[in-house]
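Issue: ligand-bound run for 2-aminohexanedioic acid - logging full I/O for the record.

Environment: standard queue, default settings, no custom constraints.

Inputs:
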Amino acid sequence: MSKIANLLERLEIGRAASTGQGLESRSPIDGQVLGHAPLHDAAEASAAAARAQSAFQAWRRVPAPRRGELVRLLGEELRRIKDDLGLLVTLEAGKIRSEGLGEVQEVIDICDFAVGLSRQLYGLTLASERPEHHMRETWQPLGPVLVISAFNFPVAVWSWNAALALVCGDPAVWKPSEKTPLTALATQAAFERAAARFGAEAPAHLSQVIFGRADVGEALAADARIPLVSATGSTRMGRAVAQTVAARLGRSLLELGGNNAMIVTPSADLELTVRGVAFSAVGTCGQRCTSLRRLIVHESLADNLLDRLIKAYESLPVGDPRQDGVLVGPLIDEGAAQAFDDALAQARSEGGQVLTGGDRAEGVPGGAYVRPAIVRMPGQSDVVMRETFAPILYVLTYRDLDEAIALNNAAPQGLSSCIFTDSAREAETFLSGWGSDCGIANVNLGPSGAEIGGAFGGEKETGGGRESGSDAWKAYMRRQTQTVNFGRGLPLAQGVRFDV
Ligand code: UN1
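Outputs:
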């Protein structure tokens, strides 16, 4: 048996993935077909919504801490397969090994977080103005949640949503990226093992995966049996989904494009800055929504910093992400490499100067490998304002901090941002209400690689949603204001009298 067949067997999807038909999974590493997943249509999507609704009827009656126990078991299953699932992420998404493993760790972490949360879905008690009345605010299960996820985090994004949804009492329907279906199959298999261990209290179809193209996602987004649609991906996709969901007055939670900047001030530790840039601009081959795309550097240090960065970029090992030492794997496909080439051509035509990289790298035959690019730009022209999902770092210079913050905030997206500085005044200004306008703002670390404990998401074209930590769970629940009269009278609020 081949190595890949063995891996799929260990992940208990050997049979499902070897049908030879449906959605084809091709590795971006070398173009090899890894296996297949079923391809569903709109009618099957509708049936999944019906099944999720009936699962909801039972699951919402299970006490939240018991629901947490199912997620605890899921976390256990994932710990057991971390190495194999991490390898599958590498094979399907092209991430280097440590990032593939890191992604599965992120899933395990959110499971732990959700287990704790299952005993902390706190509401409020409120002071009633009426005598012998109690008021409280309670969080109730909402209903099935649709999770639309992208190729670049083929399992973590599902887990931020599904782990929280499950403890909140909501079944999850998952529409993964067509590019990474086997990771979804393997994750679903792990969920099913956890559900089997949990026993009959877990209704069937608490977690389902629907494989399909955009039309299937649209059909699910239009389905009123799914009160919440959580979508991660491009702004174009998010806009389409949000409009469909809004047309039926459903709720959407959007985590869309980023165009994340780093401001480097004169007091910055340049050694640290170079390391911060490298991981965030080049990690995952520039295919994170939090990837660093704009470097806004004080004019007095631009040349010095650029020299160091060019040196660091020129020694970057690009190649097979399974190999130790490689830091830059392939782009997801040839289309992404084309977008990389097109963006660089546009940058040149807008006055940009490519300082390093920007060409194809050798890599492995059958994959799309590029050399990460640094491009000095005269200003924030059209190409800079657009998110190109590839390792291109646009460099701009500034004179004073207000100008740097204005450049940071001029992008139509508002996901992540950071400043490198040793000045408390600069750092705190960046973090103030007139500082960065993004959902995430960091000091002396890059914009990518967020921990699960914080709320994750951003403003403007990023969509405004918050997932993962903090109180993001509230999006998966229905807020109910409850008032109880424990007296014998019926006093009305606002002193209204209505004696009959
Ligand atoms: C994404 O790219 O869709 O902060 C999410 C990070 C990761 C998540 C990225 N924890 O880079």
